[in-house]
């Protein structure tokens, strides 16, 4: 029972981290149809930049802000310099962003080497929270879960209940008609890309506090984001939450009870979902 509860909590908190990364990816890939395979690099770079800010200022909160803002600016640059000229050209987007991810990986390795870094969370997040059956559970992981819930609700409200969110969804469905109505579509998409990339940088700091930041984490979280968005449904924030929950739980229970084949189960979930619903659980046909 103790192992089951620990595995369940580990699965749901890992799913929270996956959701924060994948929600940004869902905005860019699922909603705007821009294939950004450098999203994992934004996660890792945001973590590194946040670590430098935390190391120089001693403030974890400033590190979170720096991770979000720096990658939001990087997202704006990507939209203006890359994706603006490749709209609807998925193959070119894929090849260019793969090249960018390889370049960024080498640059980050040259600057920060192969050492693993980990943030020290604030004192109020440090320690453990008493819980039944397992005595206690790390407070920071519970904070990550709460953060994911807040971010998910905020994104859903932004896309479905605000004027900008409605315009973003309209621009995805019929960009020409929205532009003809007087809306600056490029500015709108820059905002969307900034939010998506900023969430990746934010997750880099949160993930670096719960786990660590090191070479290879970019590939891991890019792959996780792809699976989450495909399983949940492209462009759907609730779908991304369901996909993250499925993948996080599957990964942790697989590693706990079937460690040799634990990695395979995430892909089996993806295959099973796509066999029944090719558009994902909450995706549009």
From TrEMBL:
Pfam families per UniProt: BPD_transp_2
Coiled-coil portions: none
Keyword Transcription: no
Compartments in which it is found: Cell membrane
Organism domain of life: Bacteria
UniProt membrane topology term: Multi-pass membrane protein
Transmembrane parts of this sequence: 12-32, 60-83, 95-119, 139-159, 187-209, 221-247, 254-276
Presence of keyword Transmembrane helix: yes
UniProt family annotation: Belongs to the binding-protein-dependent transport system permease family. LivHM subfamily.
Protein name: Branched-chain amino acid ABC transporter permease
Native species: Fodinicurvata halophila
